[in-house]
Every structure is written in C-alpha cells, then in structure tokens.
Amino acid sequence: MSTHQPPMPQASASAPDWQTAPSGSYPGYNSPIPVVRTHLGHALASEWTKIRSVRSTMWTLGVFVVLVVGIGLMAAALVRSQGGEMSGGNTLALGLFGLLIGMMCVITLGVLTTASEYGTGMIRTTMTACPSRGRVLAAKAIVFFSLAFVVTLATVSFVALLQTSMLGDQALAPSGGEWLKSTVGISLYIALLGLLSLLLGSIIRHSAGAITIMIGAVLAPLVLALFMNATSLHDVQTALLEYSIPSQMSVFYDSSLSDSGPTGWDPLWIILGVTAAVYGGAYALLRNRDV
User: Fold this and answer.
1) Residue 90 gets which letter from DSSP?
2) What is the pLDDT of residues 49-71, one digit of tens each?
C-alpha cells in the first residue's frame, strides 16, 4: 500500500534573464560573461603570464646573471692584481668573457619559450584561445625580446660599472661611444640572438634539437677555423673567424679576432637581417602546419 506523496515544488516558471533573452549568437541564451574583441594586448598579457610563471625563466636568467657578473668581476680582479695592464684596451672589454658563456642561457630560454609548448601540448590551448597564429608569434617575440634586452642591459651595465671602479686609473677610461656599444649594443645583439633561438624553436618544435642547432651555429665556425691550417683554406678560415658569433660579439668591445670583417655596429645589422628572414620562415610554417 503506497502512501500519499506530497507534490514536489516545481521549478520557477521564470528563468533568469540571461537564459531567456532572445539576443546573442544562440537564441534563448545570453552569456553573463562579457564578450570583448581580443587584440595584441591580450596576447602580450597571456605570453607575459606564461613566461614569468615557469621555472625555466627564473633558472636560465638567474644563471645568466651569475655567470656574467661572476666571470666579469673575476677578470677585473685578476687584471687589478697584475697592475691593471690592458695592453691598450679599455676596461669594458672585460665584460665580454662572461657573455661568451652566459649567452647560452638566453639561447636555451629562447628555444624553450616556443618548443616546450609543443612538447607539453600547451600550444593547442594557446591556439584555441588566440586563433590568429601571427598574433601569437608576434606576442611571444615581443615579450621575450623585451625581457632578454632588459635583463642583459641591467647585468652588463652593472658589471661595467664595477669593473671601471675596480681598475680606476689603471686602465684607459672608456668613451661615451664605447659605453653605448658595450651596454646597449651588446644587449640588443644578445636579445636578437635569443629571439633567433625562439624562432628556430617554433620551426623545429623540439627543444633538444633546436638548442643543439643553435649551440652548433655559435661554436662550430670558430672551432673549425682554429684547425684550418692549410693554405688553400685560408679564405674560408678568415671568413669563419670574421663572421662567427663570438667574433661579432667582440666587435662591440673593439677586441675583434681579425683586422678585417664587420666593424662598429655591423654585427647588429647582420643578426637583425638574419632574424627577420627566419621570422618570415617561422610565420609561414606556423600558418600552414597543424598544431
């Protein structure tokens, strides 16, 4: 024998306004979340959130600062212990030693900024949130270049100030132009080198492969040139010495490995042209390939 069940309360006949409003893309439904048209600023904010929230950024840039500052101060201390003899060079040239090793950290971070997203599958979420692939690549490039430039400029300027104060009158005082090249110029060059790594990571889509290619491109020309002792290879040896990346970095400190080749600000224009060409290739591949 069944007992009488009281009638269950019925749902309110009047639904909230955002469910019944006839306007919007789907009749009968309006999202309470405001819909805004996205632009490059949103992509920049997204990329900045990602790059500052991953541990690889802190570790790579932290090691970069330690290497540049530590090696730069050690070099200045050794020169000071020998009486400050610089063989006619200025004090700022001592800042090159730390950058020759520290640039590997910027290269690694540049590759990881794009290639790691393909390894974890995060790139699918990125492209879903921002279907414009050109905007995603531009946002990554702007955020990374700005971060690398600011960190490099602050680090090399700090080292240069300490080195000049340590040596004082024991070495030649650098001119204004030498200060500009050894701080702003070399910082732009390192940031562009890291941006080139970022674009290569977007093309290769594999972190280890892209880092290996970049390290090979940095070191291989100089190492090969050192062992080219045959007379018939003299022209090739000279070209490798003049245009290898470590040699071009030394131009900013007026301590080039050869008397010919790029001078002044030429290395900056060279890497700017190479980076622009690789950017075009990375953009074309990103548009035509699936993620």
Assistant:
1) B
2) 999 988 889 999 999 999 999 99
